[in-house]
Amino acid sequence: MDQIRVTGGKALRGEVKISGSKNATLPIMTAALLAEKPVTLTNTPLLQDVRTMAAVLQALGAKVILKDRSVIIDPTDFSRAEIPYDVVRKMRASVYVLGPMLARLGQARVSLPGGCAIGPRPIDLHIKGLRALGADLQLKHGYIEANARKGLRGAEMWLEGPSGSSVGATCNVMMAAVMAKGTTVIHAAAREPEVCDTAEFLKSLGARIEGAGSSTITIEGVDRLDGGKYRVVADRIEAGTYLVAGAMTGGDVKVCDCRPDHLETVLEKLAEVGAEISVDETTIHVRGGNLSHPIAIRTLPYPGFPTDMQAQFTSMLSVVPGTSTVTETIYPDRFIHVAELNRMGANIHAHAGVATIHGVKSLSAAPVMASDLRASAALVLAGLIAKGTTHVLRVYHIDRGYESIEKKLSALGAQIERVSSRQ
Ligand code: EPZ
Question: What is the 222 CA–ligand 1 centroid distance (Å)?
């Protein structure tokens, strides 16, 4: 297993180009199964999760070609309606195939995802929404056995979850509803940019969707969806991660080809800590060097502060003087990075969904274990400022969601390298 070795102490300087969004690419790839003709996606990121999703679609009968940063999907022979446990266990987003399977094949047998490093990952809201559209879903032996042989029909529904809305449930139901008979209204819909991008993609194929980005989405069912070409939106979490890297190293970094309007709460919190931020249409410029104000963060559904940026901020706040707090309302257990940061000399106490961070003067390098995607990125960020060389093990977690993180950081002046397990 590869590891990343990073030696702290360098202020990052320069420009970094942001890749396409992982969390838009994955639902959009499954939505391509709804098309009658081939679909070409561009600006897709070179990530393990995209390769895994390609394999999932191929197993279902679709033809998929990954060519540099584009994905060509021909769904003509999409005919298998089953996804086994070992696939869903590896990548929870595989459950996005439920909607297209029911819409195109009228049946589905998909494993329940179980939990992961950030906590339980239920899909009760996916099931609630699909049942509202007339599908019959039963849970048997760890699998969802679903059928909609009589076809799907539009319905009004509330997809309210314990922490507000659900990105996955909103995408899955939207994909099932675009060819249902009649009108579907989704209340308490997720507003994330990735949900909007999935809606825009479906509309480019001929779907009739209004209100994506608001908490009420209205869908008029159509008989068929065409093929087409679509450019995936920039990854706001990758962009946010490099902004934090620039700020916490006291650097001067320009994050390019991104969507500043998708990062408003993140930029607000960076400025509150003391970073200098300036933006234009597709670029965000961050200058660190004076991170002297402790802050309070509360993760919320979009447009609130994103849970996927929580670990990175926890890393940065570990060396900000004073006491900061991070309240995790989406995944209360999402503090697996805290123990590793404390091994590097941080002083953080996480309990019942709240991390209290007492800023320390500096961190010290240590061998640390990556666990989940964003926690792993947070440990690399900590290594950028720790005294000595930090070895981050099990970097396959990072490769799921960050394209060549060590190359992009090295181009900004970080002393970082990937060491393959053979060495
Ligand atoms: C998406 O996961 C993202 N993944 C996650 O990013 C992200 O953290 C999450 O949205 C929240 O923004 C992808 O897009 C592939 P949810 P998803 O359904 O759809 C509860 C990353 O690091 N819930 O919005 O699974 C759930 O337990 C990943 O890139 C139910 O209760 O998230 C959580 O508390 C990690 N019932 C909350 O809702 C359900 O049926 C939000 O979950 C579904 C969810």
Answer: 28
